[in-house]
Structure formats: structure tokens, C-alpha cells
Amino acid sequence: MTTHSARLSARVAALLAAIATTAAVAACTSTPASDGHTDHTHDATSAQAGSDTPAANADPDAVEHNAADEAFATHMIPHHEQAVALSDMVPSRSSDPAVVELAAAIAKAQQPEIETMKGFLTQWNGGASPAPGGHEGHDMGGMQMQGMVDDATMTRLESLKGKEFDTLWLQSMIGHHEGAIDMAKTELADGANATAKDLAQQIVDAQQAEIDQMKQMMGG
């Protein structure tokens, strides 16, 4: 055999050996599927399935809740929505920069809380639609939406400007906040979901501070 032929034979042998090695590795790492085709994704799929199962990803706190938690979120959503609507009235009607600033702060705080509570309902029962607000003392599930501003007062506020508006707005928002605090305290006493109760405590603390501020603004 010539030197050239020897080198060619060596290269062919090396190539065949490499092919054989690749086939052996593939055979070891592949799992035959039931239809006779090789399944190369079984291990990856199994690993992904194991990490994505509800048991693996479930947040126990998101699941643990009771009727009081659902009532809290369902009622506080429209309650907060009315607070945001009241706040939206202020810039074009108030004559007091402090009232304008407070209204903006209320809307900024409560809009994200609305989204948080909608998230609670989605986690707990597949996204139950919150009941519409706007009715004072409306009773659902044993909890009333306390402190809601009635339609007549909302209409009156829309017709006012300046100091008259500011006075009625502050009076209305104080009562509205007091109702929210009562609802939040019910959640703290009767609720089971720790995250919802944390939000309830946050509402109590923030809105009590705002009540104190509004009373001072009214000279009380």
C-alpha cells in the first residue's frame, strides 16, 4: 500500500469511527416513542412539565382565601373607583391647590390598588366581575360598600366650583374614606388571605392619615 493510500484509509477509518460514536451517543440519549419514532425531547419536556405544574408554581397565599376576602375585593374595587372619579372632578373645579394635590395623591394610590384587587379575584375564582358601584350602602355577600357618595351629591359636586365645591368634596371624601376603613377593618377581622389583609391594613393607615389631613383643611 502506498503512503497516500494508507493516509486515505486512515482518514476513512477515523470518519467511520466518528459516525459510529455519534450514532451510539444518539441511541443512548433518545427515547423511542410509542409510534416507532425517536423522541429527542422527552427529557426536556419532562423537566419543563415538572417545573410548570400548578403544584410547583402555586403561591399558597394566592390560593388561601375565604368569603370575607372575596367580599373585601369585590366591594372595595367599586368603592375605590368612586374615589378616583371624585378625584377626577377636582382639577377643573377646586380653588385650593392643597385639595388638587390631595385628590391627585388619592387617585395615584387607589388606581393601583384597584388593579391589585382585580388580580385577587382572578387568582381566587377565575376573574369574577366586580359589582358596579355608585349605590350607597349596597349590600353584597354580607359586606356593605360603606361611605359611598350618593347620586344626588355626585350631581351637586359636578355643578359647583371654588370654595363651595372644596367644602362639599372634602366632606364627601371624609365619609368615603371612613367607609373604606370600616370595610378594611372587617377584612382584617374576618379575612384569611395574608396579602389581602396586608392591603386592608395599608388602606386603613393611608386613608386615616388623609382623613386627618382633610379635617385640618376644613379647619376641624
From TrEMBL:
Gene3D superfamilies: 1.20.1260.10. The keyword Oxidoreductase does not apply. Residues 30-60 are annotated as: Disordered. Residues 1-26 form the signal peptide. InterPro entries: DUF305_CopM-like, Ferritin-like. Residues 189-217 form a coiled coil. Residues 69-217 form the DUF305 domain. Keywords: Coiled coil, Signal. This is DUF305 domain-containing protein.
